[in-house]
Amino acid sequence: MHNLPHMDALRAILDQSIDPALRALLRDRRDDTLHCGLHDLTHVLVIEATDTEEAVIDAIGFSPLRSRIDSLPNTPDWDWIEAHAGWWELLYTVGNDGFAFIVLVEDADGSPFAELCREHAT
Questions:
Q1: Spatial distance between the Cα atoms of 81 and 43, rounded to a whole number of angstroms
Q2: What's the pLDDT at 44?
């Protein structure tokens, strides 16, 4: 898991040795966020295949595996989902000021997060 709560953390991970597809996706999200002036209102979380629901909750305060309102399992409430090469991108907006969580999920077999994305993507 890579918890990137601010632009400095996002910039730092781009200097690390990471999956090239993830690097391209993170670079695009960084550029989009800066272009839209949302750099202080964006929290990026990268969920890898072996990450647990508990770790995700510790990082962002909720789990994509449950509804944020009533905690129903396997009831996604993301605002947007998109498939990328090897990754899923989920967007969760919070409030009216433009704050959002961008959650990138590794599309790997055995990951409950990836399975949820595959099952509910339209």
A1: 16
A2: 98
CA distance linking residue 96 with residue 35, whole number of Å: 19
Structure tokens of 43? Answer: 């929290």
- Is the entire prediction scored with pTM above 0.85? yes
Question: Smallest Cα–Cα separation from 113: which of 67, 25, 26, 47?
Answer: 47
47 strand-pairing partners: 105
**What pLDDT is attached to residue 110?**
96
Count Cβ neighbours within 10 Å for each residue of 65-86 and write b for 16 or more, e otherwise: bbebeeeeeeebebeebeeeee
Alpha carbons 71 and 62: distance in angstroms, whole number: 9
Q: What whole-number distance in Å separates Cα of residue 56 and Cα of residue 1?
A: 8
Per-residue model confidence as pLDDT tens digits over 54-69 = 999 999 999 999 999 9
In the structure encoding, which two tokens stand for residue 12, read together?
């730092």
Helix ranges (DSSP H) in 36-90: 53-60
Give the containing element (helix H, strand E) for 85.
none
